[in-house]
Fold this protein.
Amino acid sequence: MRIFFVSDIHGSVKCFRKLVNAGKFYGADLLIMGGDLAGKQLVPVVARGGVSRAHYNGADFTFETSEEIADFERRVAELGAYTLRTDPEFVEQLAADQELVEQTLRRLILERTEEWVALAAERLGGTGIRLLIGLGNDDFAGMIPYLEHGPVRYAPDGLLDLDGFSLVSLGWSNITPWHTNRECSEDVLAGKLAVVHESADPSRTIFNIHVPPYDCGLDFAPRLDDSLQIQLEGGQPDMIPVGSTAVADSIAAYQPLLSLHGHIHEGRGQTKNGRTLVVNPGSEYDQGSLLGALIEVRPGKVKRCQLVAG
Amino acid sequence: MATTHGSPASEKLFARKSSGLVRAASTTDASLVNVYVATFPIMVSFLLSIVLPFYGGANLYLTLLIGAVVALPILITYAVASSIMRRSGGDYVFISRLLHPAVGFAANFVLVAFQVVFLTSAGYYFCLWCLAPLSRLIGVYAGSPGLINFANTLLQPLSIFIVSEIFVLGFGALFVARSTRSILKIFRYTLPLSLIGLLAFTVGLLMHSTGTLHANFDHYIQGASGVKHATAVAAASAKANGFSLVPFSLAATVLAITWPSFSLPYYLGSAYFAGEVRSGRRVQLLAGPVTALIGVAGSLILLALSLGQLGSGFLGSIAAADPAKLGLGGAPTYMEVAAGSSGNIVLGVLILVGFGSWLIPTVPMSLLIMTRCILGWSMDRVAPDALSRVSGRTNSPYVAVIVVTAVSAVISWFWAYTSVFTVVVGAFGQVITLGIGCLAASLIPFKQRDLYATSPIAGYLGRLPKLTIIALLGVLGALLITINFARDPSSGVNVQASPVMFWVTIGMFPAGVALYYLSGAIRRHQGIDLSLAFREIPPE
């Protein structure tokens, strides 16, 4: 089985389209999206006094025509953010109400997810290529109904039979400084991972767990202070392990054939934990670059694993 | 669509509670440490010991400023490019993606190869510029002939080799045994020492008149070697060697920019670690150029203090004189001159220890830059997989560190026993890489339209994107510096004086390309298509 695994595309239209095309491009018969489909940022395009304005990526943009706005919206969507044509009053409401920001973004995320899945179903239909989509800690349960369409399937938390392999998925993370939708304590994570023991044969088991194992070299992220500011050491970001100890323990105890992770965008790489090949393809969604891992597996063996930047 | 940057934002950007959205690190913090890593007092030492005596008519201030103007577009280009296309490995990524993977690898291969020259220079200069003068200074003040003799012993090739190996192998072992962050913590202790040294240097020079400083220096040399009236002896020897203060020469001033240019790659430290900064665009945009400006300002101050208080004739004479006439094994640096001229052992020790501390970050930073580039190659399967093997205990890329350390240990021998290398040799190949990087960056607005159009630097001057204009100026700057290196007889890569080193450096680029294709052939044999690591999936 030839798998193309990616994670953390965070709303990037360009990355999702690349993902859909990746099967043919790499000759993969299974595409796995390891979670964090949802984007993070809402960019209001505010009409005022005959012109529209927006603020994105540290710069202010001014538009005089609807074509200019459409062009901006397309570019911003390619890199993962969501635009909203609105008025100053609604912007004031957003500024005063974080819940409104969340609701607005969720609506836009669902719209984009629906469009994506429809596109994937159309393009992958009849090709024999399947797309499995799991959730990550930045996603939310409301997305699940949108993830089933033809060759596109939701990878639920738990076990899934996959052509003679067992796929163990878990779209939750340990506690982060952002207190996101789908995170929990290490104890709770360990409980959720207990399902692993239902899987009979480690040599035919593949983990698809959003958060990487703790201190495996693929979970290093900048240390932050209470205000979420990156801390430096010797002039460079001070990188510390932030993965999950429960996931690390589970891999060490169960030794699946392959363990696929995302979550830590900087943690691109592959490493071995005993018999298990542990992979985090990383993420550069905000550059429209689809980082992934091209993996060929057969029972008891990972024939090859190549990190690619598509 | 019009873009402005820095104006008050009338509209806001809103975010969910989602992981990864962080506040960028402080630009000041990043810049200050980068200034330290760029070691501007070392560069001033080259200006005073090489340019002042041997580039007749060169105006040191102007040399520094011209060098900065030529280098600034390179720094801005790298800052912008690494902000737009972030990932560990710096220019390796954007050259590979924008020009060709073989070019990206070759350019980065050259950069890594010549970082070895920088890395191994630290132990050499630490011995010459810190340990030996320190031993001499303490020996003079303590009246210890043993320490004075030991200073001379430290100047012997074997001593230099041993100190260099301790530097290289010591830091290599630390990197294997400890985590990267624990190595970088060394800066917490050495940076204050360096700053205290600069303060002592300033106080030492300002507390005396020029006449007293010269008299103190005479006294110091007499104590060190028994030679009386060192100032007059140095002046006579320098005159015999052809040194004199000549009128301003623009040609000599421009030729001398070779020397301030050597530290250019270090001002780009933040670019090479850019991949680890998330939402750190402001830091990346500013850290390189701000670092350079601080470095230039610091250099100007050091030059003004040295030339103003000690005098250009005095410093030029000491640098041009035959050291044997002063009874020394080598010409003293401006820091040793200041230490001796201060007439105070405490100030003198602080000056020399501080000066030595400026050399220390060169080793860990070079090791970091090299090992992270090698990790990038290995991850893309261009280099052997073993090179990305990481220690489970320290998370150190121990195989890459061991390889780099082993090569450096060999190169250290050349520093000690031959005159093959100068620090400019290390910079020559790297500046060509920077030029290729700028060329690649000039294509970002055309090949990465979405990224460019939504970046803070988006915009056009006429029909040309601003980034393209700046990047092409960077190409021009790198070209000027490269030509300057090749025509400067003192650079060590002069096409007539050092043809072997010149052609070896130039030849490293085709060698890098050949290595890329060789690696591709080996990987193909293993069933891996190397080009997949770089080839973009059609998004439509």
Notes: Chain B is about 70% helix and 0% strand. The radius of gyration of chain B is 24 Å.
